[in-house]
Amino acid sequence: MADVGGDKYRSYLTPEELKTTKWRAGPPNYDAVNKLFEEGRTNVWAEGSLEEQVQKFVKTWEMEMVHKSDPNEYKTLDPEKFVISMNGKNFFNLKQVAEVGGSYNIFLHTSLPPSLRFFDPDQETYESSQSAFKTVFPRGFALEILKVYSGPPVISYKFRHWGYMEGPFKGSEPTGELVEFFGTAVFEYLTGKRFSTIEQVAKIGGGYNNFLQTSLPPSLRFYDPDQETYDSSQMAFMTTFPRGFALEILQVYSGPPVICFKFRHWGYMEGPFKGHEPTGELVELFGTGVFELDENSKIVKIEFFFDRGELLSALMKGKPYDQSTPQASSGSGCPFMA
């Protein structure tokens, strides 16, 4: 390992623990990804700082979830109470995590139709998903904590994953290019600093076409913001949600000048969307937002983190719709900010 006492960025990896712990496929070795981390990180947090502690907890938690075979040996979480969620919904306990094939399949869980899934977690096992990402990132997919918005017992933070595509992925050749992934997460602690819940959401911009910005290839875009104008995007969502797409703040993790919060958008699909009939069903979108204010309490920067697939998949449930039928529009303005 990186040093004789264990791994310097993760706990519970001393030589004795490496020998006595039940591992899925032998003890992990983080030498390569630690080197990648040290070469590519944007911050070197002071030892003992909140950021350094959170970073070490997250890396340790990931190590246990991926590599330990016996949940009773987990030290970062309570196996009986732990749940994990993407975007504030579809919570999984440890048994369910195992059933769907572990961490990658949970993190990439989606409600998009199978035809739009380049990576389909429903068709992957723990072994196949691990093999896929170890092949595409032979030096690992490093993690750093960029900012901590609130400390225990509810820790909210922004993270960055990165690596280099030096191997093939699902039939696509390696490019050697840097691959980065940004997001936010929330850890809730029980007594003794054991994780109770975690939510991770993916980063996707703000506003309509920015809000639904994507780097997916055009063939996998049900809604393509690159092909929409301000007017067409407004019309599409105001038609789908004639009563608006309401917004509420569920929790605030930090206050000014950096405000970090969890939100919920919701509305009823009472109009058609991109050729699909209205279903009348409730459509919900969960995520986190970060607003940075200046000394005059004016916004200078906004970031939103959520999964666009959760929204778009709900709008694809209706049968193909004859768009020549007249469509009612909303007079309530932007439904996203109702």
UniProtKB/TrEMBL annotation:
InterPro entries per UniProt: NTF2-like_dom_sf (IPR032710), Pathogen-related_defense (IPR053218)
Gene3D superfamilies (UniProt xref): 3.10.450.50
PANTHER family named in the record: PATHOGEN-RELATED PROTEIN, PATHOGENESIS-RELATED FAMILY PROTEIN
Protein name as annotated: Pathogen-related protein
Higher taxonomy: Eukaryota, Viridiplantae, Streptophyta, Embryophyta, Tracheophyta
